[in-house]
Amino acid sequence: MFFLTPVLVAVVCILIVWIFKNGDGSSKRRKGEPRARAEVHPWVDEDLKDNTDLHQGEEDANDWQESEEDVEHIPFSHTRYPEKEMVKRSQEFYALLSKRRSVRFISNEQVPMEVIDNVIKTAGTAPSGAHTEPWTFVVVKDPDVKHKIREIIEEEEEINYLKRMGRQWVTDLKKLRTNWVKEYLDTAPVLILIFKQVHGVAASGKRKVHYYNEISVSIACGLLLAALQITKVYLEKVAFTSSLML
């Protein structure tokens, strides 16, 4: 035991020095922590790359709109159907939506604008974070503009296939025979572009946070697809283009 004493003393000295060094460093971090630590916002979805712009400096902290406390609420009312009617309606709804397909061949026959307006209104009934409704729907009919949109999308899609998506994703798509060529964007008489709003602007001119903006817009896109399928006589004539990344 006598021969181990110097070793033990050395180990104890090293431990004491290590404890003091780390304790001093942690105290320094605690002093500067409020400035260095980025705020955690659960509504920013990392998987979806939701880029809600919330990490603002002190210089523009006053640019954000404070929450509205007095908001008029619309009373909720609904029709309660008998059980048999609920089952029947759910079966009919499923029967309609089960026929939906992700087609890439589209008719050039014209679509009444009233139909387009109604399906977009339906999409606008989607729920959203703090009821911010962070979406913009743009209807494009001009052939030249549609072609420019096609060129932009094909350029990005080619990069997706060759670089971003990776070998496995591209391999999984081979059986579907898809690629970055989107000729149907020229063929369709109507394009519906959907954009997310990462923040809004209040009447005061200040910015409003749009919570879960990407998820909210995705839900609206789902309702849009359902509305198009229900008016399925026109489904093959409309090109639906999700432009969440723009």
Automatic annotation (TrEMBL):
Residues 59-69 have a biased composition (Acidic residues). The chain crosses the membrane at residues 6-23, 215-235. Coiled coil: none annotated. GO terms for molecular function: iodotyrosine deiodinase activity. Residues 26-69 are annotated as: Disordered. Its cofactor is FMN. InterPro entries: Nitroreductase, Nitroreductase-like, Nitroreductase/BluB. Keywords: Flavoprotein, FMN, Membrane, Oxidoreductase, Transmembrane, Transmembrane helix. Residues 33-58 have a biased composition (Basic and acidic residues). The keyword Transcription regulation does not apply. GO terms for cellular component: plasma membrane. Residues 98-225 form the Nitroreductase domain. GO terms for biological process: thyroid hormone metabolic process; tyrosine metabolic process. Pfam families: Nitroreductase. It catalyses: iodide + L-tyrosine + NADP(+) = 3-iodo-L-tyrosine + NADPH; 3-iodo-L-tyrosine + iodide + NADP(+) = 3,5-diiodo-L-tyrosine + NADPH + H(+); bromide + L-tyrosine + NADP(+) = 3-bromo-L-tyrosine + NADPH; L-tyrosine + chloride + NADP(+) = 3-chloro-L-tyrosine + NADPH. Its EC number is 1.21.1.1. Belongs to the nitroreductase family. Catalyzes the dehalogenation of halotyrosines such as 3-bromo-L-tyrosine, 3-chloro-L-tyrosine, 3-iodo-L-tyrosine and 3,5-diiodo-L-tyrosine. During thyroid hormone biosynthesis, facilitates iodide salvage by catalysing the oxidative NADPH-dependent deiodination of the halogenated by-products of thyroid hormone production, monoiodotyrosine (L-MIT) and diiodotyrosine (L-DIT). The scavanged iodide can then reenter the hormone-producing pathways. Acts more efficiently on 3-iodo-L-tyrosine than 3,5-diiodo-L-tyrosine. PANTHER family: IODOTYROSINE DEIODINASE 1, NADPH NITROREDUCTASE. This is Iodotyrosine deiodinase 1. It comes from Lynx canadensis (Canada lynx). The lineage of its organism: Eukaryota, Metazoa, Chordata, Craniata, Vertebrata. The gene is IYD.
